[in-house]
TrEMBL record:
Transcription regulation recorded as keyword: no
TM spans (from-to): none
Keyword Transferase: yes
Highest taxon of the lineage: Archaea
Database matches in InterPro entries: TusA-like, TusA-like_sf
Name of the protein this chain belongs to: tRNA 2-thiouridine synthesizing protein A
Organism: Methanococcus voltae PS
Residue ranges occupied by any UPF0033 domain in the UniProt entry: 3-27
Length: 71
């Protein structure tokens, strides 16, 4: 599943990530992209606290991309 949180600032990217994960089954992947770079660390922290796995987390000048495996 893909989730684009561009145009939003914290806490919305984390809340949208949580909402998307809540609709998914265990073992599914969620790819979150956005343009508010501080959200990258917040999403990674949230995902790890909830017991999911961060497969990759990359940020660049344009924004970020996080790939999450739902536990």
């Amino acid at each position: 599943m893909d989730l684009d949180v561009s145009g939003t600032v914290c806490p919305m990217p984390v809340l949208k990530t949580k909402k998307a994960l809540d609709t998914m089954s265990s073992g599914e992947e969620l790819t979150v992209t956005g343009d508010y770079k501080p959200a990258l660390q917040n999403i990674v922290r949230f995902v790890e606290e909830k017991g999911h796995k961060v497969i990759s987390a990359d940020g660049n000048a344009d924004g970020f991309k996080v790939v999450i495996l739902k536990n």
